[in-house]
Design a protein that fits this description.
Immunoglobulin-like; four-stranded antiparallel beta sheet; 15 strands; rod-shaped; S-protein homolog; signal; secreted; self-incompatibility
C-alpha cells in the first residue's frame, strides 16, 4: 500500500506540473487548457466534379449530427469534445450525390489518427496530454488495486489517506503530571495535562500530495518546568509504520518511545529535538543520546 500511494503521489505531482505548464502556454489565447480537451471542429467541403449537391449524414456512437445537403464549394461543420481518458472518439459519415445514389462511408474523425494533427493544435499540447492520459490510467489501475486490497476490511482506501491517530502516554518516573501542547502548521491541538499511565490522543488526515505532514509537541512536568520539544508525527518517518494507523508514544524524561508493531513493545526511542533512533538494551531499559 505504501508503494502504491507513493506512485499516486508522484503521478499527481506530475499531472499538476503538466497542467501548470499547459495553462501558461495558453495564456496568449486567453484560455487555460487544464485537463479538459478543446473542442474539435470537423469541416466537410463539397468538391464534387462535375458540380452537384452532396448529401451527408455524420454520427458517432453517442452523437447524431443529422443529415445535410451542401452545394459545390460550400461546407458543413460540426463540433465536439474528444475523450480525455481514452483515445477512442470516432465520427463516421455516409455520402451520396445525384449521379451515384449508393452510400459511401468514411470515418471523418478518428481520434488516434487526427488528434493534434489539425491546424491550430500544438504538438507540445499533444505530448503533455498524452502524458496526462497515461498517468490517469496508471492512477486508475492503482486505485482499483487498492480498492481490491481493502475489500476484506470493508473499506476502499481510494486516493484519500486514512486518518492517523497519535496517542501520547505519560510514562514519567517518578510519577507526575505531564503537560503537553501539540500542533502542526495549520492545526493547534491545544494544551492538555495527563497523569501517569493516562494518555491523550488526536486524529488527522496526512497530506496526500506530498509527504510533508508534521505535528510537534512541547512537554513539561512539575520537576522540570522547561519545555521539551519533540516531533510527534513526521509523515516521512511514521507513515505506514504505525499499527492500524495508531502511532503510540510513551513520554519519559529523556524523550519519546514509539510502539513497534514488529517487536510488540515501545522500543523505538528518540531524544528531545533529535530524530536518531536510540538503541534499546537487552533489559528493555532506554538509553537516550545526549
Amino acid at each position: 500500500m505504501a508503494t502504491l500511494t507513493m506512485i499516486i503521489r508522484k503521478c499527481m505531482v506530475l499531472v499538476s506540473l503538466i497542467l501548470g505548464t499547459m495553462m501558461v502556454e495558453n495564456l496568449d489565447s486567453g484560455e487555460a487548457f487544464f485537463i479538459i480537451p478543446k473542442k474539435v471542429t470537423v469541416q466537410i467541403i463539397n468538391n464534387l466534379n462535375p458540380p452537384q449537391d452532396l448529401a451527408l449524414h455524420c454520427k458517432s456512437k453517442t452523437d447524431d449530427v443529422g443529415q445535410h445537403t451542401i452545394k459545390v464549394g460550400e461546407d458543413f461543420s460540426f463540433r465536439f469534445r474528444p475523450k480525455i481518458f481514452a483515445v477512442a472518439t470516432l465520427y463516421f459519415c455516409n455520402f451520396r450525390w445525384p449521379t451515384n445514389t449508393s452510400y459511401h462511408y468514411f470515418d471523418i474523425y478518428v481520434q488516434k489518427r487526427d488528434e493534434f494533427k489539425c491546424e491550430n493544435e500544438k504538438l507540445t499540447m499533444a505530448t503533455l496530454t498524452m502524458i496526462i492520459r497515461k498517468c490517469m490510467v496508471l492512477v486508475s489501475l492503482i486505485l482499483g488495486t487498492m480498492m481490491v486490497e481493502n475489500l476484506d476490511s470493508g473499506e476502499a482506501s481510494f486516493i484519500i489517506p486514512k486518518k492517523v491517530t497519535v496517542q501520547i502516554i505519560n510514562n514519567l518516573n517518578p510519577p507526575q503530571d505531564l503537560t503537553l501542547h501539540c500542533k502542526s502548521k495549520t492545526d493547534d491541538v491545544g494544551e492538555h495535562t495527563i497523569k501517569v499511565g493516562e494518555d491523550f490522543s488526536f486524529r488527522f488526515r496526512p497530506n496526500i500530495f506530498a509527504v510533508v505532514t508534521l505535528y510537534f509537541c512541547n512537554f513539561r512536568w512539575p520537576s522540570d518546568i522547561s519545555y521539551h520539544y519533540f516531533d510527534i508525527y513526521v509523515q516521512e518517518r511514521d507513515e505506514f509504520k504505525c499499527e492500524n494507523q495508531v502511532c503510540s508514544w510513551k513520554i519519559s524524561k529523556g524523550g519519546a518511545c514509539k510502539y513497534d508493531p514488529d517487536m510488540q513493545a515501545y522500543t523505538k526511542c528518540f531524544p528531545w529535538n533529535h530524530h536518531d533512533v536510540v538503541a534499546i538494551s537487552s533489559d528493555n531499559s532506554t538509553d537516550y543520546a545526549n
